[in-house]
# Entry
Amino acid sequence: MAWAWSGAVTSNSARVVARVATGITQARLVITPERAGATSRTQPATGYARPDAHSVIAFPIANLEQATRYRYRVETPDSPGLEGRFRTYGNGPFSFRLAFASCASTASNHVVFDAIREKAPDLFVHMGDFHYLNIGRNDPDAFRRAYDRVLDSRRQSALYRATPIAYVYDDHDFGSDNADGTARSRSAATGVYRERVPHYPLVEGNDGTIQQAFSIGRVRLIITDTRAARSPVDAPIDRRTMLGAAQLAWFEGELIKARDAPLVVWINTVPWITSSNERTIEGWAPYARERTRIADHIDGLGLTSRIVMLSGDGHMAAIDDGSHSAYMSSRQDNTRGFVVAHGAPMDRWPRTKGGPYSHGVSRRNHQFGLLDVKDSGSALDVTVSARNARGDVIPGLELVLRCEKSVCAVTR
Ligand SMILES: [Fe+2]
# Structure
């Protein structure tokens, strides 16, 4: 047995993807609710399923109970296999915790992965730089080997089996440094992602990009793909795009659908705030026209205060309470944007990008973020914090939002 991880969790479904040892031709999933007297079921219901030519097998799981903890085991006729677990989300008001982070040297086995696991999040949002192999060529086998290397790492493997994942690549795990949609690795990166990552439904026919939207309780989460449709930073300004036309239209539609959600979490890998230097080629600065268009759309929907953005890319932890994130065209000096939180790097040398950030920047290694949502049914109390390798709050980097009656306000 090589590795297993879960994702695409909803209130009644999930997906497990596993790689079995080379040469194994049969595998099945055993799934059991974590409560006394619960009975297991297997998938397929009888017999075994067949891994693909690369020993990978995906198990879509349906008909689960909401807000229920499950244990799963991928087994073969000759081996008990690997175990993992997840909790389905609740319909309606549902309290949960997610961890978010990016950036770890290839196959890192750092204790920060234990610290994330010990926080027992319902979901781990990995925002890219899953490895630093910089595969700049159209070589699917190189991407397959990259997944194998990372998922074989002991501490990362333990985390990914304990916690379902929502993963989106950034530059180093999509192509080379600062890769964009012209990367030669594009088709291999997006294709092998589809084979090996337990992801939410993708928008097929949409130019290969891997954007996703899903709900946890009453919270809507939207992941955008800021690499596969991005134009080069020096493309003509009127054609320069971060998301690409098709994904941008999708994203604007998803925001319209989310307009009644009490909270929307936008997972955007690269720095949104760049007012410390708008001439930088980092983050959204070169794509400022598209940034303003999105900010205007969010503002027009009355969603600005109800968005929390989670980001990586910069090797730092940082939180902005909205003081510096307003990019709508109508903004005045005191106009507030949405909350922005960076949680990185897990295991990579520190480096600051973008800013400024109202709550400051922690430019250290071995960091991650936590988002805690407590939903009472009438209000959501949302805590965003940045954590060190021991799992402790990094001084100053904690913010509390209260969301009720279609407005979120920073209370601390
Ligand atoms: Fe990175």
Remarks:
- Residues 151 and 346 are 15 Å apart (CA to CA).
